């Protein structure tokens, strides 16, 4: 996709800003400050005021593309961000990645201690499903669909399984297929689920869902490839997290397996696959989804 014209770029930026403000306000409402013994403070520290919010943006963009319910999409956006934030809180702990910087500030366990960080992550995971299951306003069948998509993406077949592979792969050689499998689970599954949860807020055909699934799959992998590139090309101050940690931990990455130039080419190829899937969908307006694909590949943090 070519570079956006200034009016198109401004329209996209305005749409992103509107979604971010809506998601932030909803998270501020739903993440309780008054949880016992300071737990609410740790939860809010871990999820508010930070991050790219790519997953909520994908939910909202997909819901827009299928003309789905904005209100339901907002709940789905917050739920997927809560799952993402909980995973970061746990991944950063000493028993896993042992990181001290996230979203430009000390990680939750550094700020609040390991036990409180563990509980904050647990509580955010539970809250995600609470947000998806209000007593009224979301049909029970849709609640079940959204919960199923999110649970599968976060569990053993998705994010948690990918993290287990990641921890088991330190210092071990992985070929590209094994690396792809790990990242499709660890990172890609939740990004793909974000797209599918947005699609579930409308009534798309099976063919549209299939195309959006392919888009989400390619985009999820592209995101991780670019993450691996940025880990070796950007400073911690730019990333908002510790740069070079994968190399220091002797973890296999797309850069270590493919090389830097080939990794970036692969990211662009995946972006092209995502855009081709959107073209096949037949949806009338996939502008925001397409722009998000560009944003994933062209980002510097």
TrEMBL record:
The keyword Nucleotidyltransferase does not apply. One of its GO terms (cellular component) is cytoplasm. CDD domains: Trans_IPPS_HT. GO terms for biological process: terpenoid biosynthetic process. Its cofactor is Mg(2+). It holds the Pfam family polyprenyl_synt. Its EC number is 2.5.1.1, 2.5.1.10, 2.5.1.29, 2.5.1.90. The keyword Hydrolase does not apply. Gene3D superfamilies: Farnesyl Diphosphate Synthase. Coiled coil: none annotated. GO terms for molecular function: (2E,6E)-farnesyl diphosphate synthase activity; all-trans-octaprenyl-diphosphate synthase activity; dimethylallyltranstransferase activity; geranylgeranyl diphosphate synthase activity; metal ion binding. It is an enzyme of class 2 (transferase). SUPFAM superfamilies: Terpenoid synthases (SSF48576). Keywords: Isoprene biosynthesis, Magnesium, Metal-binding, Transferase. InterPro entries: Isoprenoid_synthase_dom_sf, Polyprenyl_synt, Polyprenyl_synt_CS, Prenyl_diphosphate_synthase. It comes from the Bacteria. PANTHER family: FARNESYL DIPHOSPHATE SYNTHASE (PTHR43281:SF1). NCBIfam families: FPPsyn. Belongs to the FPP/GGPP synthase family. This is Octaprenyl diphosphate synthase/dimethylallyltransferase/(2E,6E)-farnesyl diphosphate synthase/geranylgeranyl diphosphate synthase. It comes from Piscinibacter sakaiensis.
């Amino acid at each position: 996709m070519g570079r956006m014209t200034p009016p198109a770029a401004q329209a996209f930026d305005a749409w992103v800003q509107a979604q971010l403000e809506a998601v932030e306000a909803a998270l501020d409402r739903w993440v309780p400050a008054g949880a016992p013994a300071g737990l609410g403070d740790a939860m809010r520290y871990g999820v508010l005021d930070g991050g790219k919010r790519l997953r909520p943006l994908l939910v909202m963009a997909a819901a827009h593309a299928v003309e789905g319910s904005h209100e339901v999409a907002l709940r789905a956006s917050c739920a997927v961000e809560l799952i993402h934030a909980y995973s970061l809180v746990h991944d950063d702990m000493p028993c896993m990645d042992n990181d001290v910087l996230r979203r430009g500030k000390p990680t939750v366990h550094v700020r609040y201690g390991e036990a409180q960080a563990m509980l904050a992550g647990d509580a955010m995971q539970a809250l995600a499903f609470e947000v998806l299951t209000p007593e009224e306003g979301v049909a029970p069948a849709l609640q079940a669909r959204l919960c199923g998509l999110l649970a599968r993406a976060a569990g053993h077949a998705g994010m948690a399984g990918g993290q287990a592979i990641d921890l088991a792969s330190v210092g071990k050689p992985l070929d590209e297929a094994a690396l792809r499998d790990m990242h499709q689970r660890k990172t890609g599954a939740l990004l793909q689920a974000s797209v599918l949860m947005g699609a579930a807020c409308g009534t798309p055909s099976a063919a549209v869902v299939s195309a959006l699934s392919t888009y989400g799959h390619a985009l999820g992998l592209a995101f991780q490839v670019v993450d691996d590139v940025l880990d070796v090309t950007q400073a911690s101050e730019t990333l908002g997290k510790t740069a070079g940690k994968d190399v220091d931990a002797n973890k296999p990455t797309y850069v270590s397996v493919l090389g830097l130039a080939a990794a970036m080419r692969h990211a662009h190829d995946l972006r092209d696959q995502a855009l081709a899937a959107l073209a096949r969908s037949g949806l009338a307006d996939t502008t925001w989804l397409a722009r998000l694909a560009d944003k994933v590949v062209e980002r510097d943090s």
